[in-house]
Amino acid sequence: MGPDIGTLRTLLRRYDRAGEPVSCETLTEGLLNRGYRLSTTRGRFFLKHHLDGDHDAIARQHDVTRRLGALGLPVAPPVATADGSTVTVLGGRCYALHPWIEGHHRDGGELTEAQSRRLGTLLGHVHTCLEEVMEGPEGAAKGPGAPSDTAARPEDTFTLIEELLGLVRRGKGSRPRDSFDELAEHRLVERRALLERHAHRRPPAAATPARGWVHGDFHPLNLLYRGGEPAAIVDWDRLGVQPRAEEAVRAAVIFFLRPDGTLDLAKIRPYARAYRRATGADAAELAAAVHRVWWERLNDFWMLRWRYQLGDLRADPGFPASAALAVWWTRSYESVRAAFTD
User: Fold this and answer.
1) N or C, which end of the chain is more exposed by having fewer CB within 10 Å?
2) Inter-CA distances, 190 with 196, 199, 327, 330, Å
3) SS3 12
4) Which residues contact 70 (CB under 8 A, 6 or more apart)?
5) How crowded is residue 261: how many other Cβ atoms within 10 Å of its Cβ?
């Protein structure tokens, strides 16, 4: 349920020319925020409710997007209130009002090779512009939910696999076993065998690529297109310091993942070349990032943890392709690395 009419009226009065509320439609119900399409007598806005409520951190993110916009990146900085604030606190809740950006999301299957190249250039510019507007990464905190620099331990993953297998096989309450449970059990057993064969390939700490400021969650749902060109990079909640090349690899794996669990390497190749040109990252840095993200995927079961440990089914539709990817990537490891480093 979104903000009530009283909350919306109080919120909009903080702004000089926002008008009166007409309608408020829920768009997103994420873990870090909720989003609404807010129509008023003066136009349309994107209203964001930040669930973590860290006023200072949110204000810093807003300042970063404002400075990135000044450098020419497609962003949507928030609207300032009459007193110049970009964060409004009502009833202990933090809200931000953004201009409404007309656009749509596009995954890698909808991008041409030229557009894939421009996507790599765009992410490269995000990283170089962040380097320009932020202080150095030394001592900076990582973004919320950022992957650890320490690679997953196979021993811990084996324990998790056994826990998940127990939950899958027992079922939950009176819910009958279904095809998702069958697939989950198959993939868990398969992944356990795969890890047993490749446990010796765990990345050493020394193999961590260069760290720097990153968007933290660069994927199709956080990039709006208008026609064939990016109109706005949104959702900067995970802004933080991470290995930069790993964000480039993770983004490509999400954008260019096909429904059958394979990657479109013909599009990844121009994307990666453009990213390397934009940032100056060399092939060795991308190769290290590919290895670390491959290992991360091999040990990752967040979708099954959501379903079987938290009872949250929102990630279920993405599981078949994601689970198949770990197997295909292991088999096609050299081809994937070559696509990012050629």
Assistant:
1) N
2) 10, 14, 8, 12
3) helix
4) none
5) 16
Cα gap 70→72, rounded to integer Å? 5
- The secondary structure of residue 54, as a DSSP letter, is -
Tokens 């925020």 sit at which residue?
A: 33
Q: How would you class 92 by CB atoms within 10 Å of its CB: exposed for 0-12, middle for 13-18, buried for 19 or more?
A: exposed
pLDDT in tens, the chain (342 residues): 679 999 999 999 999 999 999 999 998 766 668 999 999 999 999 999 998 878 999 999 999 999 999 999 999 999 999 999 999 999 999 999 999 999 999 999 999 999 999 999 999 999 999 999 997 655 455 555 555 678 999 999 999 999 999 999 987 655 788 999 999 999 999 999 999 999 999 998 777 778 999 999 999 999 999 988 999 999 999 999 999 999 999 999 999 999 999 999 999 999 999 999 999 999 999 999 999 999 999 999 999 999 999 999 999 999 999 999 999 999 999 999 999 999
Distance CA 305, CA 163 (A): 10
Among the listed residues 245, 272, 251, 249, the one whose alpha carbon sits nearest the alpha carbon of residue 342: 272
d(CA 214, CA 73): 14
Which run of H or of E encompasses 29? strand 21-29
Contact indicator for 27, 37 with CB cutoff of 8 Å: yes
If you compute the radius of gyration of the chain from its CA atoms, what whole number of angstroms results? 21
Strands (E), the chain: 21-29, 33-40, 43-50, 88-90, 93-99, 211-214, 223-226, 229-233, 240-243
Q: How far is CA 97 from the centre of its chain?
A: 21
Query: What distance in Å separates the CA atoms of residue 96 and residue 110, rounded to the nearest whole number?
Result: 31
Sheet containing 21-29: order of strands: 21-29, 33-40, 43-50, 93-99, 88-90
Q: Which two tokens stand for residue 207?
A: 């193999």
**Closest to 40 measured CA to CA, from 19, 17, 9, 25:** 19
Closest to 134 measured CA to CA, from 146, 143, 147, 144: 143
What is the sign of the dihedral through the CA atoms of 11, 17, 23 and 27? negative
User: In whole angstroms, what is the distance from residue 255 CA to residue 142 CA?
Assistant: 23
